[in-house]
Write a structure and sequence with these properties.
Elements: H1 10-32, E1 47-67, E2 73-81, E3 84-86, E4 88-97, E5 100-109, E6 115-118, E7 120-134, E8 137-141, E9 158-178, E10 181-183, E11 188-193
Antiparallel strand pairs: 1-2, 1-3, 1-4, 1-9, 2-7, 3-6, 4-5, 5-11, 6-10, 7-9, 8-9
Length: 199
């Protein structure tokens, strides 16, 4: 039965809001501790990330396999960026709920000021944009990467790195994003039925 017009269905609101608030609380605890673990089980679906411009001191990348809770493997390009600055950021994910598909959307930056992240690691299925790389090294053994502290693969794996990176018009489908510290100016979180994704 639908609630009378002008009234709120608290059961439906709770079904949408509770999972979102739990996710935000978990992220807040991780950020308060200064680091988010990069070895957690990922969800079954990728999410979207976009930014007008991303820049950083140091880029390191190699092929990695993320694991979901059911044990399935998801190949990604692990991208490590040291001292990253983003003009703005948008992250969105589609989530199935008992009341329909919900878009969980987080935005920050823009007019509020740049978003900053230390030791940003993005496990990405793809990345599109216009890039400028300094002192790039393609084909370096992933176990010897040293442009971003702690970002190294296994011996014999293909790797690449650069001394600095700038990407404009960033568009990515990612499995996870972690960082030592995030400073999100103008943070806004929205959970909407049939909401609009980042792109």
């Amino acid at each position: 039965m639908n609630p009378p017009e002008g009234r709120t269905s608290w059961k439906r609101a709770a079904a949408v809001a509770v999972p979102a608030f739990m996710a935000v609380a978990a992220m807040a605890v991780g950020m308060a501790e200064g680091v988010l673990a990069s070895s957690f089980a990922v969800s079954g679906a990728a999410f979207k990330v976009s930014s007008g411009e991303l820049s950083g001191k140091g880029l390191a990348s190699y092929v990695h396999v993320d694991r979901s809770a059911d044990g399935a493997g998801h190949p990604v390009a692990l991208l490590g960026i040291g001292d990253a600055t983003l003009s703005d950021i948008c992250q969105s994910a589609q989530v199935s709920t008992p009341v329909g598909t919900v878009v969980f959307k987080l935005t920050a930056g823009g007019k509020a000021g740049a978003v900053r992240a230390s030791d940003l690691v993005l496990d990405s299925e793809d990345l599109a944009g216009d890039a400028s790389l300094g002192r790039i090294e393609l084909g370096r053994d992933a176990s010897t990467l040293d442009a971003v502290p702690g970002v190294r693969g296994e011996a014999g794996q293909f790797g690449l790195q650069a001394s600095d990176v700038t990407v404009t018009g960033v568009r990515s489908h990612a499995r996870s994003a972690t960082g030592g510290n995030f400073k999100l100016r103008g943070l806004a979180l929205n959970v909407d039925l049939n909401g609009e994704a980042c792109f």
